[in-house]
User: Fold this.
Amino acid sequence: MLRASHTAFIGDQEYAFHVTPALIGELEVKCGPIGALCNRVFARNFAQADINETIRIALIGAGTTPKRAAELIAAYVDGQPLVETYELAAKILEKTLFGNPSKGNDK
Assistant:
């Protein structure tokens, strides 16, 4: 199975971001159906919680502890210019929705 993760610098170092199938449910509890969340973010019609929760859940999905993920959101996402955090959340959701198409479809 193709693991669609994303790596990006946030705050103090590079982190991996991945929304696992199991964590999609938690993201949906916070932000509504995953399809609607993707539509809002891709159309730039998002809420701040859409951005924060996408990044937080993706940190956890890639192995960051929930406590550390919350600390990173508080320190480096809350209060930052939206364009910076939006681009990260959009890339995470793009990978969640489409995978890594340039690497082909592993079966």
